[in-house]
Amino acid sequence: MTSTPTPHPTHLRSHTFHGLAPGPRLLVTGAVHGNETCGTRAITQLLEEIDSGQLGIERGTVTFVPITNPLAYRLKQRMGERNLNRNMAPSAIPQDFEDRIANVLCPLLDAHDVLLDLHSFHTGGAPFVMIGPQNNTGALEPFGHAAEEMQLALHTGPHRIVEGWLDTYARGVKRRAEAASTSAGDRKQALVTDPNYGVGTTEYMRSRGGYGVTLECGQHDDPAAVGVARHAILQTLGLLGLIAQAPSPEPAEREILRLVEVVDRDHAGDTFTREWRSFDPVKRGETIGTRHGGEPITAPVDGFVVFPNPRSEAGQEWFYFAQRRA
Ligand SMILES: [Zn+2]
């Protein structure tokens, strides 16, 4: 017996408020991954407060997209037909639902200066915020707003900041492409070996002259994550001067971790030594996992296991390795 296929949503909902004085243009996105709904709920609360006059948008523009992947949201899962937060670009000939969303979302990103993208994560742990590269004129992710982006990251709340994602991802993709064998015609394989596949919402925003952060507000089902998302939105509105309330000061303590390596799962028999949680510290030489054939995977230096996914498919990211930034 087959279940009825889920009908595909036919629109993307957004809400824009224009302050009556000029100012920056902020975009706030929730549920880019459909099962990450803390941003959706925080946005819904704030929309009511703005409509009722409790919260006043005084300058600039803010647009809220409470459900950025409506198919994945309807399915209550991370992806619809693919991960919306990868390979973000307009396409002349859309191949899947996420391509069609990107064709609407990318112009929306283009029309704003700053992005706050609200996510949550699978395994427990404290919230953290992800930023892009340092200012650079390189080919992969040229950037000139590192100082503003760091200010934004610091004000969103979490004391842990993670940087260096696209750079690390691109190196992983390069290695993967070199190892790829016969499946060249396979779209899935083509996607995971394309360096542009690493471009999500914030990377796209930077590529268009803006800046933005990804805020990981907490575990998917943690009710506190909604409060983290709400606080971050209000802080961002205050920092950019869109509301009258000044933001609370940035936390005195902060920890900046740089992603330095991504390790793919090569085989379904590759296993972790234990149930890692993101940011679990590891000592140099400590065994993190074991390959199907018995070969241990050890920490190259003192660092941290980040984004471990014990259920990742063979040929895809298994975990990242991070070091404290000097
Ligand atoms: Zn996410």
Write up what this structure looks like.
The chain is an alpha/beta fold. The chain contains eight helices and 14 strands. It has helices spanning 38-52, 70-75, 97-110, 146-156, 165-179, 187-192, 201-207, 224-239, and strands at residues 15-18, 21-30, 59-65, 114-121, 128-130, 160-163, 211-219, 255-265, 271-272, 280-282, 287-290, 296-298, 303-306, 316-324. The strands form two sheets. Strands 1-3-2-4-7-5-6-8-14-13-10 form an eleven-stranded mixed β-sheet, sandwiched between helices. Helix 4 (146-156) links the parallel strand 5 and strand 6 (160-163). Helix 1 (38-52) crosses helix 8. The radius of gyration is 20 Å and the shape is globular. Zinc ion is lined by residues 33, 36, 119.
Biggest sheet, open or closed, and with what strands and sense? 11 strands, mixed
The parts where pLDDT drops under 50 for at least 5 residues are none
**Helix content estimate:** 25-40%
Spatial strand arrangement across the major sheet: 1-3-2-4-7-5-6-8-14-13-10
